[in-house]
From TrEMBL:
The modification 4-aspartylphosphate is found at D54. Pfam families: Response_reg, Trans_reg_C. InterPro entries: CheY-like_superfamily (IPR011006), OmpR/PhoB-type_DNA-bd (IPR001867), Sig_transdc_resp-reg_C-effctor (IPR016032), Sig_transdc_resp-reg_receiver (IPR001789), WalR-like (IPR039420), WH-like_DNA-bd_sf (IPR036388). Residues 127-225 bind DNA. This is Response regulator transcription factor. PROSITE patterns: OMPR_PHOB, RESPONSE_REGULATORY. It comes from Catenibacterium faecis. Residues 5-118 form the Response regulatory domain.
Length: 225
């Protein structure tokens, strides 16, 4: 499993810790800059996979540090700033930034931008796991679901069900579609068998997670939010 490491260059400690706490929930390894006069040095030591860069910083601004980092690395960088002029956005891109997010912003929006950039840049690294909810993810490398540090082992059929539902996350998957996928494993799956499989899988997940993971759309099928 590969973890994305994010370096946050933000001098507002309350805000930086808020970002860190939120992103940690989704499996990101987050580092905060300690010495704002040595941002480049810390960046070289940490070797992050993505940087969140504020513009207004002590000593030198974010544009300066972006240009310095770009002298040796093309690590993806998202500018996060309360400055909203077009000139600032143009400068951010010109210095080598990949995106620009204005404060205040919605944290899920920031996470979506992070996921989009890391997916494009590190597809071969991030495709081994997918986060379902806070502290819950599916690991494709060993076909298991993890809740915090606890692993939920799945049978072959349960894995197929979970994978299909995750591929269509937030969308309803019909019972027939699930049965078709299960049929491809050369197992005989009847309508009643599917009901039993879903029921057992729900119980197994609820025993560990303590909550329902698989939802039912009456008369239509199942989905994972």
């Amino acid at each position: 499993m590969y973890d994305i490491t994010i370096l946050i260059v933000e001098d507002d400690k309350i805000l930086a810790n808020e970002f860190k706490e939120y992103l940690n929930k989704y499996g990101y390894q987050v580092n905060l800059i300690e010495n704002f006069s040595k941002v480049l040095n810390e960046c070289m030591n940490i070797c992050p996979d993505l940087i969140l860069m504020d513009i207004n910083l002590p000593f030198y601004d974010g544009f300066y540090w972006c240009s310095k980092i770009r002298e040796y690395s093309q690590v993806p960088m998202i500018f996060i700033s309360s400055r909203n002029s077009d000139n600032d956005k143009i400068m951010a891109i010109a210095q080598g930034g990949d995106d620009y997010v204005e404060k205040p912003f919605n944290l899920p929006v920031l996470r979506a931008k992070i996921e989009a950039i890391t997916r494009r840049t590190y597809q071969y690294k991030v495709n081994q796991k997918i986060y379902i909810k806070d502290n819950i993810f599916y690991d494709y490398s060993n076909n298991c679901i993890y809740f915090k540090n606890e692993k939920v082992d799945l049978t072959k059929s349960e894995n197929i069900i979970i994978k299909v539902l995750l591929e269509e996350k937030d969308k309803v998957v019909s019972r027939n579609a699930l049965m078709d996928e299960l049929w491809n494993t050369d197992e005989f799956i009847s309508d009643n068998t599917l009901t039993v499989l879903i029921s057992r899988l729900r119980l197994k997940l609820k025993d560990v997670i303590g909550d329902e993971l698989i939802c039912t759309k009456k008369g239509q099928g199942y989905y994972i939010e």
